[in-house]
Amino acid sequence: MVASSVLLVLGSLLTLIAAIGVTRFPDLLARMHAATKPQVLGLVLMMAGLALALGTSQVTWKLTLVVLFQLITAPVSAHMVGRAGYRTGKVRSDLLVVDELTDDLRAAREEADR
């Protein structure tokens, strides 16, 4: 019971940190990072704590499916939001250290123009 409580509290703290990061970070990419990385780990910890607390195999399988779907969809949705934000100018270019997408988009436009 102690292990499940610790996992639930740690997962809740990580989810809280993700929420604070979404409200405090300066641009789209940083907010997107805060919304996906600690939130997914927080969800995994909370589902593990819930599985330990309940202890039935039926619930554990359902919680495992929740975690798998989150692990599959979070990176894909973050990637799509990042690309859409970049293309619409919502990304602050002064905060980018490396900008590979501009070169890729320029090469794709040149290839399409041929």
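The above is record 1. Record 2 follows with the same two-line structure.
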Amino acid sequence: MYSVNVPVPGRVRQLADQLYPSLVGFETVREDHSCLLKRLGDAPHVSQLQRRAHRALEGAPAVEAQITGIDYFEDPPLGSAPVVYLAVESPGLESIHEQLLAEFDHVEGLEGEDYVPHVTLARGGNLETAQRLAERDIEPVTWTVTELEFWDGAYKLPVSRVSLPA
């Protein structure tokens, strides 16, 4: 599965690293961090998906994003629960998500009206632990999103990037 992801700055990765000791009881703890913007599906050649995404992203500007706190999905539509994440507030990213929806089908329960920008920290743990984490105060992290990544889910690697003009 290919996707368009938002790379996060080092300050967000540092925050995730600081939270790591509180996440060790979860089944899976993410070590690589980004914000999923839109799932693109599969194609025999990633270049086809990239061309379609580039067309959909034409004219999309750089946007502001902010980590506003820790939250969790108690009952996510896919995978083990709960999912603990860093909440991302960004009307600009939500707008770009909508642009991509015009070109690519949306995944029911995860995209469109159900889209919640976030950076996953861990999943498959204790609900009470997730609730305690969500009560923690963190210092907000604000940054400008100037590029997006085309992500190969099979290899868990970015395959290319697209710049968003400032």
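Helices lie at 10-19, 46-57, 91-101, 127-135.
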